[in-house]
Amino acid sequence: MALNAYPPSVKELIQRLARLPGLGEKSATRIAMFLLQSSREDVFALADALRGMRGRIETCSRCFHFTDQDLCSFCADPDRDTGVLCVVESTADLMAIEQSGAFKGRYHVLQGVLAPLEAIGPEDIRIKELLARVEGEKIQEVILATNPSSEGEATAHYLHKLLRERGLKVSRIAYGIPMGGDLKYIDRVTLERALKGRLDF
Questions:
Q1: Residue 126: which CATH number?
Q2: 122 exposed, middle or buried (CB, 10 Å; 0-12, 13-18, 19+)?
């Protein structure tokens, strides 16, 4: 059914839902139809939850992860390793690492990467705040966990230089073959990085 066939309020909802990541017009239409068939209480509760989230959620004053307090749960946790700092591009990346259960230190969210073609420079992401943290906190190691894109690599190289000048141990997350992967389907760049980053067995 064409979008114009819906009442204006439903059409607007579909258009707004379709702007969400991973949703196209068809998925947005299915969600809108589900909401139309749901009880008023459920729909109003969803709307209240969205309003409440947007009204209460800010960024942590230390690491810039999302929180409804001054400090997020990671920065406020006394059991986290305060000597190791993992630098990520976004909160989504932070959550992916956290869900792995492999890291027990603290985080720093850059809120972006260096992208000269889009006029995003060092002053546009949280690099100044990162440098203030490594100087003010007892950080012994910084793990650079930016994505393996050209922008993520450029950001990691830039940060590596700045942090090494300050005498810190700086490491980079490894890239390689995913568990269950088949070598013949792995791209050339991933294979090259896996070979260069090989470990003693």
A1: 3.40.1360.10
A2: middle
Look at phi and psi of residue 67 and say left if phi exceeds 0, alpha if psi is from -120 to 50, else beta.
Answer: beta
Q: How far apart are CA 33 and CA 103, in angstroms?
A: 41
User: 168 and 88, same structural domain?
Assistant: yes
Backbone CA torsion sign across 183, 187, 196, 180: negative
Please give the chain's pLDDT, 201 residues, in tens.
Answer: 567 788 899 999 999 999 999 999 999 999 999 999 999 999 999 999 999 888 888 999 999 999 999 999 999 999 999 999 999 999 999 999 999 888 999 999 999 999 988 999 999 999 999 999 999 998 999 999 999 888 999 999 999 999 999 989 999 988 887 788 787 788 888 888 778 777 777
pTM over 0.85: no
Residues 6+ away with beta carbon under 8 Å from 76: 69
DSSP 8-state secondary structure symbol assigned to residue 89 = S
Is residue 137 situated within a structural domain? yes
Range of the domain at 166: 80-172
